[in-house]
Specification:
The chain is an alpha+beta fold. The chain is 40% helix and 15% strand. Strand 3 and strand 4 form a beta hairpin.
Length: 135
Amino acid sequence: MTRLSIFFTAALLVGCGGGDGPGSTAYQQAVDAAIAMEAEARMLAVDHPCDQVLQCGVVLFTDPKNPCAMRVYQPYSLVSTTAAAAKTASDQQLALAARARELSQQPPVACPAYFAPSPGLACVASRCIALSAPS
C-alpha cells in the first residue's frame, strides 16, 4: 500500500469516525494519524546532501494533543530525493494535528502568547543543521 493511500485511508477513518471499541473515536484516530504522519515526515526529511545553506530548509511538526503546543522544527535538505515528499508529509501532519485538536473534548484553553522562531540553518560537512539560538 502506498503512503498516499495509507494517508487517505486514515483521513477517511478520521472523517467518518470508523472503527469499533476503545480508542476508536474520531479524536483518537486523528491523533494516531498525526503521529504516524510525523514519523513518516521525519523519515523522509533527511539532512543531506547540501553544498550551501540555500539547499537547507525546515519541516514543521506540532503535538496533536496539546492545544498550546509550539511547533518543532527539523532541518532537511531541499535537494534530497525525498524533499518534496517530506514537505508534503509535514504539511499533512500539521493539518491532522489541527483536526485532532478540533475534535478534542478538552475545554478551550487560553494559550500564552509566545513564539519560537525558525532556527538558523547551516550546511556543515554536507549536512543541514540547525544553529543554536543566541543566549
